[in-house]
Amino acid sequence: MGKKTESVLRLLSNKPFVQGALVLALIFALANPLGLPIKIDPMSKKVYDIMENLKPNSKILYVASAPTGTMGDLIPQSVPLIYHLMRRGNLKLFFIGIGESADHIMIYIDSEVFKRIGYPEKYGLVYGEDWVNLGYVAGREVSYENFANDVQGTILIDREGNRVAELPMFEDVHTMADFDLVIYNGEKSWMPIQYWTEKFHKPLIVLTHTAMLPIDVIPWYTAGQITAYLCGVRSGADYEVLVDRPGGAVAALDALSISHLFLISLILLGNITYMVEKIEGKEAK
Amino acid sequence: MSNILRSKEFTTVLVFILSTLYVLHYFIQGVEPFDNLMLTIGNWAIISSAAAAGLGLANLSIIHVNKIRKKESGWYWDIWMVSVMFFTFLLGSITSSQSSAYQWIYVNVYQPLGTSIFSLAYLWMCSVAVVAFRVKNRDAAFLMLGGLLSLIGNIPMVQVYTNVFFDAKTWALNIPVRGVGSALRISLALGLVLVGIRTWLGIDTSYVALESEGG
Question: How much is the pTM?
Answer without folding.
Answer: 0.86
